[in-house]
Inverse folding.
């Protein structure tokens, strides 16, 4: 704890020295941010390790958008950055430490007064030095692998203390999970309060001039996504050490732009699970259409928040064909949660378009990475390649 606070103080002092020689930084609205989080790991099961006073340190170089791109105006001149996260999880022996790298974006909810709330979202990767280990650390059911996804959301205020410095104070939540790639995978949920400061080498203007942006083409378009996922055929806690299986995903859907930043979609999601098929063949689960019975078909609705060539996808769906789960999983684990998992699926992800969707009126191509879940329980992570016609 003392070392982390010392790093925090040294960083605060060091960036203050940059002001004497800021010619390079002043060419754009750069900022250097440091935050110190004090939180609590949510104990969402009875057999989890205890954690005492976990804390995280964040260093976040970021850039304030200035209006030279259309999406700056659409989203009210957000700030983008890439954070380095260092932390102690409050139990060195069983939970260890975390290092994360997390791109993020910050939006101003109202006008830029000191009391105006700001909201930040981040998504990246984390490294845990003490994941579950059957011999050395069998109590850590939170995290089953060294590498996991890391998500973050925070709400804070930003009072100025000088022309170049601002304070930060707010609340945040962190979530880490390996998306069922390797069990156990209960995942870590860490709500926190935080304080920090921001150094602006170039003082920000009091306001940016917003201009009107043309609404994109709203024609109905056909999309196809194909890709590959991976998971273990296991529950949240086990069995441990089972093989990893591929999932082949094909999505067929229609999409249409609404307004300047929304893309709405509806269609079918088809997933073939090698894990299901292996179990069907090994244990003679079905006597006919065995490959088909290892497939799940869902009707889905989705929304993309379009940020230039990137988009943030949220999608929900209803499973209309899921024979393996209904017969061989649900019967073993009956309950309200399992009933919902039979039918409700969801995914979140990030997509990148090779051509700007706002101006590409013909075909386009994109890649994306996603996390798929069944009623809130992670199922698999996947990568897909998509085409728009």
């Amino acid at each position: 704890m003392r070392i982390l606070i010392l790093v925090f103080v040294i960083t605060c002092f060091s960036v203050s020295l940059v002001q004497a020689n800021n010619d390079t930084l002043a060419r754009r609205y750069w900022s250097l941010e440091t935050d110190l989080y004090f939180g609590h790991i949510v104990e969402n099961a009875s057999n989890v390790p205890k954690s005492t006073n976990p804390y995280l340190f964040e260093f976040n170089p970021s850039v304030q958008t200035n209006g030279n791109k259309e999406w700056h105006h659409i989203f009210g001149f957000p700030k983008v950055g890439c954070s380095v996260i260092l932390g102690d999880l409050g139990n060195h022996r069983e939970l260890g430490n975390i290092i994360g790298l997390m791109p993020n974006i910050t939006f101003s909810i109202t006008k830029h007064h000191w009391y105006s709330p700001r909201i930040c979202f981040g998504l990246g990767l984390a490294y845990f030095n003490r994941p579950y280990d059957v011999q050395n650390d069998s109590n850590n059911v939170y995290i089953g692998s060294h590498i996991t996804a890391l998500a973050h959301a925070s709400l804070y205020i930003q009072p100025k203390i000088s022309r170049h410095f601002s304070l930060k104070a707010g609340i945040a939540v962190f979530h880490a999970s390996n998306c069922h790639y390797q069990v156990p995978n209960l995942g870590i949920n860490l709500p926190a309060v935080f304080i920090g400061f921001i150094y602006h080498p170039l003082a920000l203007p009091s306001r940016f001039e917003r201009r009107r942006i043309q609404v994109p083409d709203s024609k109905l378009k056909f999309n196809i996504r194909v890709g590959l996922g991976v998971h273990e055929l296991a529950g949240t806690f086990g069995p441990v050490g089972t093989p990893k299986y591929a999932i082949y995903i094909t999505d067929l859907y229609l999409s249409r732009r609404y307004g300047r930043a929304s893309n709405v979609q509806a269609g079918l999601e088809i997933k073939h699970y090698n894990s299901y098929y292996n179990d069907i063949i090994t244990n003679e689960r079905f006597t006919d259409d065995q490959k088909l019975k290892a497939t799940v078909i869902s009707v889905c609705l989705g929304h993309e928040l379009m940020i230039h060539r990137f988009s943030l996808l949220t999608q929900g769906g209803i499973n209309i064909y899921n024979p393996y789960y209904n017969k061989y999983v649900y019967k073993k684990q009956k309950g309200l949660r399992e009933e919902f998992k039979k039918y409700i699926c969801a995914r979140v992800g990030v997509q990148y378009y090779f051509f700007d969707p706002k101006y590409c009126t013909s075909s386009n191509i994109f890649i994306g990475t996603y996390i798929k879940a069944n009623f809130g329980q992670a199922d698999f992570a996947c990568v897909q390649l998509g085409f728009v016609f």
The first helix runs from residue 2 to 17.
